[in-house]
Automatic annotation (TrEMBL), chain A:
Gene Ontology molecular functions: 4 iron, 4 sulfur cluster binding; carbon monoxide binding; iron ion binding
Lineage of the organism: Bacteria, Bacillati, Actinomycetota, Actinomycetes, Streptosporangiales
InterPro entries: Hyd_form_HypD, HypD_1, HypD_2_sf
PANTHER family named in the record: HYDROGENASE MATURATION FACTOR HYPD, HYDROGENASE PROTEIN ASSEMBLY PROTEIN HYPD
Gene symbol of the encoding locus: hypD
Keywords: Iron, Metal-binding
UniProt xrefs under NCBIfam families: hypD
Coiled-coil blocks: none
Protein name (database record): Hydrogenase expression/formation protein HypD
From TrEMBL, chain B:
One of the protein's GO biological processes: protein maturation
Source organism of the structure: Actinomadura livida
NCBIfam families recorded: hypE
InterPro entries registered for this protein in UniProt: HypE (IPR011854), PurM-like_C_dom (IPR010918), PurM-like_C_sf (IPR036676), PurM-like_N (IPR016188), PurM-like_N_sf (IPR036921)
Domain PurM-like C-terminal: start-end pairs: 189-336
Residue span(s) of domain PurM-like N-terminal: 69-180
Protein name: Hydrogenase expression/formation protein HypE
């Protein structure tokens, strides 16, 4: 298949792996964080770690959109969904995310009308087809999905669709990276930058990471060779003593981002003073809310929302996993109390979550798997 | 294992110990935690297994049921019979390549066929929603009749119930089937070859697209088909060396492989590059972020044969039109028991676990 197979070529991977190994300083340990959950998924899906030498470890960052939604917001969404005239619409991987009192799937089983959609525009269509119902879209994700939410609200406004609103949980990646960089217990050598977010925000905003914090960052694509090449580029920077923003994903990411997408986000949304991230706590200016002009499409204005805060379960160490301080298996409840069937933390819910990815794809030690597949 | 230690607070954890703990937790009897049925309980994955263990097996416990096979083998007056049942609730009722009628016949025929039986007679129970068009019902029964003829079975008894509008989604069908049981499955052993009878995931992707919720169009049709003749030919070509056959329905090939690995207490190692997937299925799955290994089939079986029989089985499959694209996709190994491992096209490895529920499309 074109645009897929050429990025999964095992021969090229072997060549790159050899080159990666030759760039590693003997005895030095390297820790790179892939910020984006899509990368985590790719790493496990294709078995990329098999190509990396032992002294390189990949740390799975906070870029899984459903993993960072705090439980209180899930409860608020379920509260909205449980109003008798409401149709709640949501992306698929939000369905299993637990709040303080169950998930969308549980609320659906209890009678709430919750439907999976693939785009906010599908939610708008549902609103047009059901004029006597109030249709709410669960807006989640980083700058990747925020433009489509913004465009949908603009379209709803242009077409005068009054029974549609969005429960806005969109978050922004840079404050989260900054929070991680400021965390005292962290030691990272560089970042694999989020490819899809960067199609919107471009590569320039990362310069504080390479400048102020001196950590190289390579914006990477989502195919396995993209990731190997990005690791190679990071090592090359370290070997040369450089700390720069580089763009490995040039076939998709423009250096300056997508002006139109940024414009529609800016037109409809503004930063919240602060927002709670699951596991990471409150981070200032890390999320978006609708501007007052769009209050009619803001579920937080349309509905009376309890807005309660639910503390993360004590046993859950999602925060440490999201910051890369702990490997998933080092969490106290990993794989015992917290499994994909009974997730305590959201890292275990989405297949992009570090814990679920590790549980599903890499539960056994690499040596044993290697032996079995030899 | 490298024995690398990690200090976490005051506790020192070794990965190996953690993994052992997880394996122990996994081998414990499943506990049903939900108070109400969710859609995940019908997905064929872990949630379905838990429900079966915690509710149905608890209530109906007997040696036939304990096998949890595609059909029960019963000896009646010296005759070995196979008996099975399945219900069909597909939406939409009509889709490219078939309809709920073919599915209801082929699914039950296949459950008998994979368990080593010759399907003979079927029952058909209809639950119809008030207002359902008779023309649609005729269309469904005509296709059931054609499917039964193609599979060489008769529909010999049935039942009809009508529920109020809104209490069902048009038409649900249950079929049960009896057949003459021949060979019971043999033990799966390390070294055995694992085959699939054709390209995977076509039914599931066809249904997803037929629901019209995605703006994706593809030239695809459901793979629904009766497998009894095809599987009989494999048995004839490989006498005594066919270990197990399973039809891959909901949960896809990955779920069937997991069940095989778990039953056999062995590992199944699959070579991703050998798994046949049509480009349209692959493309749709790439777009949606789902894995074709978990997507439903309705006319594909996974077959485990002794290593020396792999070539003969493959040749027999490929001689039949339904098996033209059959392939050897992997091998049974002794360790790690109960796991399915995938050697990726990229040259890496990963574990293919049972899903909890249906595969959920990813956000981005």
């Amino acid at each position: 298949m074109r645009f897929v197979d050429e990025y999964r070529d095992a021969d090229k991977a072997r060549t790159l792996a050899a080159s990666i190994a030759s760039l590693c300083e003997p005895g030095r340990q390297y820790k790179f964080m892939e910020v984006c959950g899509g990368h985590t998924h790719t790493i496990y899906k294709h078995g990329i770690e098999d190509y990396l030498p032992e002294n390189i470890s990949l740390v799975h960052g906070p870029g899984c959109p459903v993993c960072v939604i705090p439980m209180g917001r899930v409860d608020d969404a379920i509260h909205i969904a449980s109003q008798p005239d409401v149709i709640m619409t949501s992306f698929g991987d939000m369905m299993r995310v637990p709040g303080g009192d169950g998930s969308f799937f549980d609320a659906k089983a209890a009678g709430a009308d919750i439907r999976m959609v693939y785009s906010p525009l599908d939610a708008l269509k549902i609103a047009q087809r059901n004029p006597d119902r109030r249709v709410v879209f669960m807006g989640i994700g980083f700058e990747t999905t925020a433009p489509s939410t913004a465009m949908t609200v603009l379209r709803a406004a242009a077409q005068g669709i009054g029974n549609f609103s969005v429960f806005n949980n969109h978050v922004t990646i840079l404050p989260a990276i900054k929070a991680i960089l400021d965390s005292p217990d962290l030691r990272l050598d560089g970042f694999i930058g989020p490819g899809h977010v960067s199609t919107v925000i471009g590569c320039r905003p990362y310069s504080f990471i390479t400048g102020d914090y001196g950590k190289p960052l390579v914006v990477a694509g989502f195919e396995p060779l993209d990731l190997l090449q990005s690791v190679h580029m990071l090592l090359a920077q370290l070997a040369a003593g450089r700390s720069e923003v580089e763009n490995q994903y040039g076939r998709v990411v423009p250096w300056d981002g997508n002006a139109k997408a940024l414009q529609v986000i800016g037109q409809t949304m503004e930063p919240r003073p602060y927002f709670e991230w699951r596991g990471l706590g409150f981070i200032s200016h890390s999320a978006l809310r609708f501007r007052d002009e769009y209050a009619a499409y803001d579920a937080e204005s349309v509905f009376d929302i309890p807005g309660g805060r639910v503390a993360d379960p004590k046993a859950c160490q999602c925060g440490e996993v999201l910051k890369g301080v702990l490997k998933p298996w080092e969490c106290k409840v990993f794989g015992t109390a917290c499994t994909p069937e009974t997730p305590i933390g959201t890292c275990m819910v989405s297949s992009e979550g570090a814990c679920a990815a590790y549980y599903n794809f890499g539960r056994f030690t690499r040596e044993r798997v290697k032996e079995a597949t030899r | 294992m490298t024995g690398r230690d990690t200090v976490t607070g005051r506790v020192t954890i070794r990965e190996e110990q953690v993994l052992e703990r997880i394996e122990r937790a996994r081998s414990r009897k499943a506990r049903l935690r939900e108070d109400a049925i969710t859609l995940a309980h019908g997905s064929g994955g872990k949630a379905t297994h838990t429900l079966i263990e915690a509710v149905f097996r608890e209530a109906f416990d007997n040696p036939h049921l304990d096998r949890l096979d595609d059909s029960a083998h019963l000896t009646v007056n010296g005759t070995r019979l196979a008996f099975t049942t399945d219900s069909y609730v597909v939406s939409p009722l009509f889709f490219p390549g078939g309809d709920i009628g073919d599915l209801a016949v082929n699914g039950t025929v296949n459950d008998l066929a994979v368990s080593g039986a010759t399907p003979l007679h079927l029952s058909a129970g209809f639950i119809l929603e008030e207002g359902f068009p008779v023309a649609d019902l005729r269309r469904i029964t005509e296709s059931m009749s054609r499917a039964a003829e193609a599979a060489g079975v008769d529909i010999v008894t049935g039942d009809t119930k009508v529920v109020e509008r809104g209490k069902a989604d048009g038409c649900y069908i249950n079929t049960a089937g009896v057949g003459l049981a021949h060979a019971a499955g043999a033990e799966v052993r390390p070294g055995d070859a694992v085959l699939v009878t054709g390209p995977i995931g076509e039914h599931g992707v066809t249904i997803m697209l037929a629901r019209g919720e995605l703006d994706i169009e593809a030239d695809l049709a459901s793979d629904t088909a009766p497998l009894n003749c095809l599987l009989a030919e494999v048995r004839d070509a490989c006498p005594g060396t066919v270990r197990r056959m399973r039809d891959a329905t909901r949960g896809g090939v990955a779920t069937v492989l997991n069940e095989l690995a778990s039953d056999a207490g062995a590992a199944v190692v699959v070579d991703e590059s050998a798994v046949p997937v049509r480009p349209a299925v692959r493309g749709a799955c790439e777009l949606l972020g789902i894995d074709p290994m978990y997507v439903a089939c309705e006319g594909r079986a996974v077959i485990v044969v002794a290593p020396e029989a792999a070539d003969a089985a493959l040749a027999a499959l490929r001689r039949h039109p339904l098996g033209a694209d059959a392939a050897v996709i992997g091998q049974v190994r002794d360790d790690p028991p109960g796991l399915v491992l995938l050697k990726t096209v990229f040259g890496g490895t990963r574990i293919v676990d049972l899903l909890v529920g249906d595969p959920l499309p990813r956000i981005c």
